[in-house]
TrEMBL record, chain A:
Residues 2-236 form the ABC transporter domain. It comes from Paracoccus alkanivorans. This is ABC transporter ATP-binding protein. Belongs to the ABC transporter superfamily. Keywords: ATP-binding, Nucleotide-binding, Transport. GO terms for molecular function: ATP binding; ATP hydrolysis activity. PROSITE patterns: ABC_TRANSPORTER_1, ABC_TRANSPORTER_2. GO terms for biological process: quaternary ammonium group transport.
Automatic annotation (TrEMBL), chain B:
It comes from the Bacteria. PANTHER family: GLYCINE BETAINE UPTAKE SYSTEM PERMEASE PROTEIN YEHW, GLYCINE BETAINE/L-PROLINE TRANSPORT SYSTEM PERMEASE PROTEIN PROW. This is ABC transporter permease. It is a multi-pass membrane protein. Belongs to the binding-protein-dependent transport system permease family. GO terms for biological process: transmembrane transport. It is found in: Cell membrane. The chain crosses the membrane at residues 49-74, 95-123, 165-187, 199-227. Its main location: membrane. Keywords: Membrane, Transmembrane, Transmembrane helix, Transport. Gene3D superfamilies: MetI-like. It holds the Pfam family BPD_transp_1.
Length: 311, 244
């Protein structure tokens, strides 16, 4: 569990982070969203003490991070950034094993770990291990960057716009993979993004920041249905709201009894996918894999915030 | 390819000339007057060349060590305020004429190789220092951020990240210094250091153009070979970090 308590950072006379407190439960993903200059990156960098807080403290599983030597603290926390920051003079394997080697793992241990991670990220170890970073595509570099952050099995992973440099198609895939891997490993993840779509896709909790202040912190459905301030609703964008809301729930949760014609939709598909399929194929009910149907009416009901509030 | 052939040819010619200068006498005969000897025989050409190279090597190693150390110090947070001072010192080293350094050093150190080493050392600081500075400060901020974020200590960042990434640029500085020193070392013979300058001075004193030509030629070919060798090294170092 990560507890951020009254964290403040002042540069000169301006506070870039003002008295922010929030808690991230173990194994959850928290997305820090805001425009540039909102203080979200500074907040993230105070967690591994790349920036020293002016006031307040950060507790990781109850332990105050101020009591640990900064470089030792950072070796326990995974860190991945935009543009990956891979060491250009080191091979993929050397890059990934950076922290394990700092921690004094044996050669056998860190070699095994490199292969394990490359497989996890769907990169053939024999093929990729000895490549240099400049011999990889953008998506592969990004995956190696995340693999490097996860190498020493940290309980906490910090990410600063990790997908910012990827094109939209690769980005969607990378987000999906990250989500799967995070669920598989149970790592607590704090991710900074300026993209509300990404925050809704990934976050169990979303923290919206503006001008150094935390405006709202809650689950995506709460942020979407009851934005705390006009800034939050602007950030969500009213046009996309119902679709974002639908994208949060899988089809499996609103299956009804019945029969329907046409192609089946997977149980784990989101309601947004189901709506898109209804509109595209002109049907008002879809069969779901493994039995049951979803109807256009039930989708419509789910897209309205009142339905959520009543739950 | 042609470059490589030319280099090999130049090296073979130089080795042949140093091994047996007499065989090339007819080549230099046209540059002598009054039946003066065409080939310098006071001191063996090979031994002069080796001692010339030895002096340059020592001076370049010393300049490189000091200049890189200085560049590292002034790029650390604690040494940043000394940057202007270090720049001034190395610039003065470069602008102060080596001949003047010799003249000042001889009364203190006596005749021989010592004053020449000092002159070359001072003269060679600036290129290495400026390049090392550029190499250490011009690095990708993301790479620096990642290195810090993963928990490398400042010392580990220097040795494992900053210096390897700055290496190609530092090598360029060492190359400039080596080539400059190779030429400048000839003046060491005015204060009795054993260098190829001995041929040139002997030629000037006896109005024998052939001697001057021989000294100049050997230094020239050496400079070209060293220049090429360093360039190859720089390319290798740059290719390793994906800048090739």
């Amino acid at each position: 569990m990560i507890e951020i308590q009254n964290l403040t950072r002042i540069y000169g006379t301006t506070a870039v982070v003002k008295d922010v407190s929030l808690t991230v439960e173990t194994g959850q993903i928290a997305a820090l969203v805001g425009t540039s200059g909102s203080g979200k990156t500074t907040l993230l960098r105070m967690i591994n003490r790349l920036v020293e807080p002016s006031a307040g403290r950060v507790l990781i599983d109850g332990k105050d991070t101020a009591e640990i030597e900064p470089h030792l603290l950072r070796r326990q926390i995974g860190y991945a950034i935009q543009g990956h920051g891979l060491f250009p003079h080191r091979t993929v394997a050397q890059n990934i094993s950076t922290v394990p080697r700092l921690l004094g793992w044996t050669q056998d241990q860190h070699r095994a770990r490199v292969d394990e991670l490359l497989e996890l990220f769907q990169m053939e170890p024999a093929d990729f291990r000895d490549r240099m970073p400049h011999e990889l595509s953008g998506g592969q570099q990004q995956r190696v960057g995340v693999a490097r952050a996860l190498a020493a099995r940290p309980d906490l992973l910090l990410m600063d716009e990790p997908f910012g440099a990827l094109d939209p198609v690769i980005r969607a895939k990378a987000q999906q993979d990250l989500r799967d891997i995070q669920r598989q490993l149970g790592t607590t993840l704090i991710i900074v993004t300026h993209d509300m779509e990404e925050a809704v896709t990934l976050g169990d909790r979303i923290a919206v920041m503006d001008k150094g202040e935390l405006l709202q912190y809650g689950p995506p459905s709460e942020i979407l249905t009851t934005p705390a301030t006009s800034f939050v609703s602007d950030l969500i964008g009213t046009g996309d709201r119902p679709f974002r809301l639908l994208s949060l729930t899988p089809v499996a949760e609103i299956i009804a009894e019945g029969q329907a014609e046409g192609a089946e939709i997977p149980r784990e598909a989101s309601l947004r996918d189901a709506l898109a399929e209804c509109l595209w194929s002109g049907r008002d009910r879809l069969p779901v894999e493994g039995g049951g149907i979803v109807t256009l009416d039930s989708l419509r009901a789910q897209a309205a915030p009142t339905a959520r509030a009543a739950e | 390819m042609t470059g490589r052939v030319l280099m090999a040819a130049a090296m073979l010619f130089l080795l042949a000339f140093l091994a047996s200068p007499e065989s090339f006498a007819s080549l230099f005969k046209p540059f002598t007057r009054n039946n003066a000897p065409a080939i310098y025989t006071q001191t063996g050409l090979m031994s002069l060349t080796l001692s010339h190279l030895g002096l340059v090597l020592l001076a370049v190693i010393a300049s490189t060590l000091i200049a890189v150390t200085l560049a590292i110090l002034v790029t650390r947070p604690s040494g940043r305020e000394f940057l202007p001072l270090a720049r001034t010192v190395t610039s003065v080293g470069q602008t102060f004429p080596p001949v003047a350094v010799l003249a000042l050093a001889v009364p203190v150190m006596g005749f021989g190789a010592g004053p020449t080493l000092v002159a070359l050392f001072l003269y060679g600081l600036l290129p290495v220092f400026e390049n090392a500075l550029a190499g250490l400060t011009g690095q990708s901020p993301q790479v620096q951020e990642a290195a810090r974020g993963m928990g490398l200590t400042p010392r580990q960042r220097l040795w494992q990240v900053e210096l390897p990434l700055a290496l190609p640029v530092i090598l360029t500085g060492v190359r400039l210094t080596a080539v400059i020193s190779l030429g400048t070392a000839t003046i060491g013979s005015t204060v009795a250091a054993k260098t190829l300058g001995e041929l040139i001075i002997a030629g000037l004193l006896s109005s024998n153009t052939a001697f001057v030509l021989q000294g100049g030629m050997v230094v020239g070919i050496l400079a070209v070979l060293i220049y090429e060798g360093f360039q190859r090294l720089e390319q290798l170092a740059a290719a390793r970090i994906g800048q090739g």
